[in-house]
Every structure is written in C-alpha cells, then in structure tokens.
Amino acid sequence: MTVVQLIFREIIKRKLNFTLSLLAVVITVSIFVSFFTTGQASKNETIRLMRDIGFNLRIIPEKTDMAEFWKTGFSEHTMPESHVYKLASFKGLSYAHLTAVLQRRIIWKDMDVILAGISPEVPSAGREKTPMFFSIKPGNVYIGFEVARRTGLKKGEETDILGSLFSIEKVLPESGSEDDIRIYAHLHDVQAIVGEENRINEIKALHCLCIMKGSIADSITMLREQLLRVLPDAKVLLIRAIATAREQQRYMSEKYFAFIIPFLVVVCMAWIGILALINVRERRREIGIMRAVGYGSGRVAALFLWKAVLIGLIAAAAGYGIGTGLALEFGPAIFRVTANMITPEIKIFYWCLIAAPVFCALSVFIPAMIAVTQDPAVALREK
Amino acid sequence: MIRLEKVSKIYRTRRGDVRALDKVSLDIKEGEFLAVRGPSGSGKTTLLFSIGGMLRPTEGNVIVSNRNLYAISKRQRAKFRATNIGFIFQMFHLVPYLNTVENVLLAARVGTKSFGPEDAKSLLNRLKLSDRMYHRPSELSAGERQRTAMARAMLKRPGIILADEPSGNLDPENAAEIFKHLVEYNQDGGTVILVSHREVVDNYASNVIYLKDGHIQEYE
Ligand SMILES: Nc1ncnc2c1ncn2[C@@H]1O[C@H](COP(=O)(O)OP(=O)(O)OP(=O)(O)O)[C@@H](O)[C@H]1O
Ligand SMILES: [Mg+2]
User: Fold this and answer.
1) Residue A293 and residue B90: Cβ atoms within 8 Å?
2) Which helix H or strand E contains A268, and what residues bound it?
3) pLDDT (tens digit, 9 = 90+) per residue, A349-374?
4) How many angstroms does the Cα of residue B197 sit away from the middle of ligand 1?
5) Which of B74, B82, B90 sits opposite A293 (nearest CB)?
6) Pick the CATH number of B31-57+73-219 from 3.40.50.300, 3.40.1000.70, 3.40.50.2000, 3.40.50.1000
7) Is the pTM of this model over 0.90?
C-alpha cells in the first residue's frame, strides 16, 4: 500500500472528518477570494470616483477676513488675474474646471446686488469637459431671478450698469440662494466698470486631482504648500468631495480585511488541527499496526501531512470558485460604479493553490507529530 | 538467533512501578518453535514486543540476528521489523478501511523487497481466503480475520513470526487452523514464538517456557 492509496482509502472510510476539514478550508478560501476580488473593485472604484469628482479648491487673497468672506460670499481684497494662469500651468494638480472671478456688491436700481465677473474657463490639458461655469460674452449679462422680478427686466432687453450698457442674455431660474440677486458678466467687463483692471478676488478650481502619490489627505497638504509657493499672496480653501469619504471607507474595509482574514485563518487552522487530532486518536491502533509492520516516522507523518495538502488543494479550487462566484453575484450591487470591474482574479487562484495546502499542512503538524511519537506497544495492547 | 540478556522491563505508573520482566535471559535458535505460556499479567506480551523491537527494555540487551535491537536507531529498527519480523495479535489489528488483499499488502512496499498483489493472493489462497479477497475486515469472520492477519505477517517471509494469543478470540477449530499454519511456517524454516494460554500448543512447539511475574519458571 502506498501512502496515497492509504490516504484515499481512509478518506472514503471517515468521510465526516474529511468533509468537516474541507468545509472549514473552503469557507476560509471563499471568503478570502470574495473579499479580495471585490476589494480590487472597491480600490478601482475609489480611483474612479476620485477622477470623476476629485475635490474643489477656492483660492482667495491672503488678507481676506474669513468672517467677512463667509458672510458676503467673496473677499473684499483682490489679487492679480495672472494667478489663474500660474495655477493652470502648475504641475502637480489636474483640474476639470478653472475660472477667475471678481465679485462686488453694488446698489443698482435701489437694489443690493452682487456683480460677478467670470472669466471663460481656462482649458485644462488633454481632456475636453463641458463647462461648469457660465461662459458669458463681453457686453452680455445673466441676471438672477430676484433681480429680474424686482426690476421687471426681461431676456433680450438692454440695461445700464454703472455707466455701461449690457444686453440681458439670460434670466436665471430661481435658485433659492444668493445667486438670485447676482448679475453675471464677463470678467473683463466687471473689471472695467468697477475700476479693477486685471484684478480678481477668487479662483475656483473644480474637480481637482493631485498628481501625487499617497493618500488624498497627505497629498492635499503637500499640494497646499506647493500652491502657496506659486501664489504667495493667496489662501487656499478646500472643499472636500466625496472621494475623500470614499477613500476613508476603503481604508476601513481594508482594515476589516486585514483583521478578518488572519482571524479566519487562525480559526480555520485550529479547526482542522482539532479534527486531525481526533483523527489521530481514532487511528491509534491503525498507526500501531503500521509501526509493527515497519512503517517509519516519515511515512506515518506523511499520511497526515499529504492528506492535509490534499484538503488544501481541493479547498483552494473549490473556494476560489465559490469566492469568485459570490463576488460576481453580490459585488456589483455593492460597488455600483465599478461593477464591471469585478472580474475573476486568476493570480489569487495560483496564490491559494500554494497557500491553502501549506496552511493545512502547518495546521496538522502537531497532530501528525503526536501520531509519530505515540507508543505503538500501548496502542496494540488495547483490547 | 534471538538472544535476551538479563532483560528487565519496568513500567513506571502513578501507582508505582510494575516489573513486567525481571532479568530474563533466553536463547532461541533459528527454526525453533517456542511456546510461551503463563498466567495473565506475567509479562508474555511485554517479552514478545521486546523481541519484536517494539518496546525498549529498561535493562538488558535484545540481540536478534546479530543485531543489538535497542542500540540501533528507531528508523533502522523499523526497517529491521519490516523485513525480519511478522506480528500476529489476538485482536487481529486489521486496518478497517482496507480489504483483505490490501491489508496483506500493508507493508508490501516497506523495507527492501517489494511484494505485489499476486504474492498476496497466492498466500490468501493457501489460507483458504480466495473468495474473501475484496472483503473488508468487518465483513469477515473471526477466523478469516486472523488468517488475513497471518497472511500479512507471512507475506515477506520474515525469519521470525511473533504471535500473541492468536487463538484468543477463536473457537478450537479456527485455533487449530492457525496453529497448523504456524507449524507449516516453522517447518519451512521460520522461527515462531507463540504466546498462548492453550495447553495444546505444547504439542506443536519444539520448546515451551513458562512465565510468572516476569521470570522464566521452567525451560525445556
Ligand atoms: N503500559 C503499561 N503500563 C503499566 N503497566 C503495564 C503496561 N503494560 C503492561 N503492564 C503491566 O505489565 C505486566 C505484564 O503485562 P503483559 O501484557 O506483558 O502481560 P501478559 O502476560 O501478556 O498478560 P495477558 O496474558 O493478560 O495478556 C502486567 O502486570 C501489566 O499490568
Ligand atoms: Mg498479553
């Protein structure tokens, strides 16, 4: 009888012990594989979300009184318009939308309104984006809903603002915010009528992405420092987007993963170790007789270790199948954005094929040693 | 061929030491059929296991075929057992998940010479087990089980057969059958040591010793 023949005959005889061991390893491998497969997807999803949403920057003059800023919505100080071009050419930041703004509060037609001059979007290298900011032709204005209601002005009419004539290109729908008392014009028109040539009081950069390695939090701190070197008289306000939250969520799930998997592996190893111990107890006489007919320690240990390796191999294959199946079945519902990124990870299959047998063999090492060291004379005396 | 030199075995238990063998000296010649008799607890099994290289004596030497059995390594002892010694037990000790042929072949690949199913089958034919070749031990009668165990012990034609109460669980007919095969083995040149309560074994044996409290009482 070869060791392999003995192992297979014994497995068929004691199916329960074998099945329970196999079950434990299959469950562990399945969970690992499904976590890993969806984990890749969640990582990809975060990257995708970061790319699509990123974070928003508001850059304002450094001297700005923040209490005043948050009250009025803009800074009473100004900075050079050229800042926006410096920012545009700054390496280390990619953005989807970038514009320069000059805002002023004026009394116009007995009404307290905000005059907002907006530059056309500064194009970003490479990608075409539908503009997020109004792109207003010089000589034209958009007026807010409340402004139109109070003054009775309509689309297509002409109106005078601080001595210049503008034609009303659009009346904006009600927004329920201070936008309703805004008048939007081209940046250069506003600069001219308020006498602030080449000055702005805010740069808005939307959907920015740091072109740096590391976590978002780290790279944002670095980005801030680097921006301030380029724009020394500016202040950088950061509006965190959901990507950050997503990234944190991913870190959380990675932490769980890092905790759950070793925990599972330990429980699984203990489980099959105990089952192997029971198996050794059950086979005392059998091992005794093998000793009597001349089996050496290596051959006795091999009976248990190779059986464990066999369990590991079967479990790796089955667990990979089940784990991948679970990930494909339930993963898309969890990670909607990257649903189609949940694909079988073949490299994890090879990894399991090696790791599972090794872990199984390690788990039954102590029981195998007990089998080897047991006294056959005592076992064979049992009646 | 087998020589025991002042062999003592003391089992140390929590309730005190048990002296199972007390300075036993014994010479067994090649081709001898030795019967070992004696009351329960007199040390017969202990003696047999010591000769078989399965139980290290507390004192003394066991020399088999010019080899001091407990001076060589455990691995060498296992190898020695595989080629030179066949065990037969009262409880048969068959491997429950192997059929008759497989049980006989349990040690076929251990040791120097390799034996195959054909050897097992011809032996089983001689032991009148030809229509029980593929049965499991649980499907065999006590006599059939013991003959299977006997085939296992004899497969590689070891120089020595050690039989510990082989008839203990058998009726007189099956017991006689077993003894007959042991005598045949002995007549073919094998050395047989048989432990038994049955007085009839004296008729088969060329020598009989009586053990009592770990001592040999008479030596014929
Ligand atoms: N492992 C052990 N630990 C302690 N004492 C033991 C052990 N094995 C045997 N003994 C004791 O050693 C003595 C001899 O035992 P042994 O089995 O050799 O007797 P035996 O002549 O074969 O008896 P039986 O005819 O009942 O089989 C007995 O008193 C027994 O209780
Ligand atoms: Mg006994």
Assistant:
1) no
2) helix A242-282
3) 999 999 999 999 999 999 999 999 99
4) 15
5) B82
6) 3.40.50.300
7) no
